[in-house]
Amino acid sequence: MVIGSALVLDGHVDTPLRMLDDRVDVGLRGDATHVDLPRMREAGLDAAFFAAWVDPAFAPDRAFDRSAALLGAVRDAADAHPDLAAFVEDAAGVRAAAASGRVALLAGVENGQALEGRVENVERLRALGARYLTLTWMNSNHLGDAGGGEALHGGLTPLGRDVVREMERVGMIVDLSHAAASTVDDVLAISRRPVVVSHACTEARGPHPRNVSDDQIRAVADTGGLVGIAFMPAYLDPARPAEVDWTAIVDHLEHVIEVAGPGHAALGSDFDGVPRLPAGMAGVQDLPKVATELERRGCRGADLAMVLGGNWLRILEG
């Protein structure tokens, strides 16, 4: 899917859960997952954030170890297949991996319960290679309220504020996916660095508690951040998720571009984190369709390069 000199980066895949719990070897081609290294390379997906999703069941005292094990599974995959992949932590690493013909594996942690309520665990996660932390998941937690979750705090908690400041100090990206509007507002009020929504869709195209409003898109863009579009049918088209097809992904990308410009739209597939994908999107092998359709609709050249991966690379360089 490389067009010109574009590097392609997906901001969120949930494959580590399968790698750790089901012992799926992503170095081998297969149909057990949406993503594996051979198909990534063939599809032109140069890099992806492999997300360490922490199930709330691991709280309160097993969540950090769970996140560490999932992060370890990502490193182990790269170590087991050095001809196919490299574990990297920045834009230079992505570019070096691509230049050597390998895919770059980045890591993030999904669900702030991984911190077990301790600010010092932010630095520990960063030391394990995590570049972003998704503050909440479906459930509100000790950092703040989740979109669709119970409104426990009215937004970000005092601990959540300390965590955001610590993340910015150690070089971790704040991910607002799953966050309630009140939490988003509170983060934006104190953040001094670009924030992201790694995997969601747009409220204008699909009204859903997990999607972002135009005001939120503009606010995230004002920080220099981005919105990564997820491939979840229920987010793409809540009214008819069973009928939605892959072109809806491009509809949502186009909407972010219309609201905030091409410098703030990105890919955030949620591969292996959704029960089903839209028709015509069976897995990473079908990702080139998105680039082709964007180009057909007029997103070309430098604009297309930003959407496909350049925006993530810019944030990783900061």
* H/E series: EHHEHEHEHEHEHEHEHHEHH
Largest sheet: 6 strands, parallel
Poorly predicted runs of 5 or more residues? none
Q: How many whole angstroms does the radius of gyration measure?
A: 18 Å
Number of helices: 12
Q: Find the count of extended strands (DSSP E, 2+ residues).
A: 9
CA-to-CA gap between the ends?
25 Å
Mean pLDDT: 97
Measured as a percent range, the helix fraction is: 25-40%
Which percent range describes the beta-strand content? Answer: 5-15%
Overall, the morphology is globular
Helix and strand composition category: alpha/beta
Describe the structure.
By secondary structure, the protein is of the alpha/beta class. It is built from twelve helices and nine strands. The protein has helices at 16-21, 37-43, 63-80, 91-99, 120-127, 158-170, 181-190, 214-222, 233-236, 247-260, 288-296, 301-317; strands spanning 9-13, 47-53, 85-87, 103-110, 130-134, 173-175, 196-200, 226-229, 265-267. The strands form two sheets. Strands 1, 2, 3, 4, 5 and 6 form a six-stranded parallel β-sheet that branches. Strands 7-8-9 form a three-stranded parallel β-sheet. The longest helix is centred in the first third of the chain and has 18 residues, at 63-80. The chain is globular, with a radius of gyration of 18 Å. 57% of the residues are buried. The mean pLDDT is 97.
